Amino acid sequence: MTKTPLVLVVLLVARAAWGFPDGAPVGSCDSFMPRHGTTAAQPNPTAPYAVVQSKAHYNPGDIVTVTVTTSGPSFKGFLVQGFNPQTREVIGEFLGGPGVHVVPQCSAITHENNRNKKAATLNWKAPLGNSGPVMFRATVVKSFTEFYANLLSQSAGY
C-alpha cells in the first residue's frame, strides 16, 4: 500500500471518531439526526436540555431569540431550525454570529466548535412576507454516543 491511500484511510477514520467538531453537516438537515454511525437518539422526555424561544408569534422581519440551554451536563453541538407548527414548513433564517455556523441549505444553524457549552443564544429572522406562529426543533449533542434529536421549543414564560 502506498503512503497516500494509507494517509487518506487514517484521516477518514479519525474524522469518524471525532464526529463533526465544526458543526452538523448539511446531510443532517433532512432527519435532524447526527451522522454518528449506528448510535440512536436518547428518549426526548429524559433530555437535560431545553430550547426556549422569546416569542411564539412573529411579524414580518422580527428577530426571535432562541436559546439552547441546560441546567445539567454541558453539550458539544446543536442543530436548530424554525418552522410553522401548523404546516410544518421550514420558515425564516438564522443570523450568524460568534460560535455558530448558518446552514442556509435548510434554514438552520449549528455549532462552530465542539467545546462544552451550557447555553447557545441564537437569533432567527422572520420572513418578510407574512406573520404567524413559529416553533423550533433542535438536536443537541452531549457526546458522540449521547444526543437528543428533534427537541421542540417552548416560548419564554411557559
TrEMBL record:
Highest taxon, organism lineage:
Eukaryota
What CDD domains would the database entry show? Answer: Reeler
Residue ranges of every copy of the Reelin domain listed in the record: 14-158
What GO cellular component is one of the record's annotations?
membrane
UniProt keywords (A-Z) are:
Signal
Is Signal given among the entry's keywords?
A: yes
**Which InterPro entries does the entry mention?**
Ferric-chelate_Red/DefProt (IPR051237), Reeler_dom (IPR002861), Reeler_sf (IPR042307)
Designated name of the protein: Reelin domain-containing protein
Source species, please? Haemaphysalis longicornis
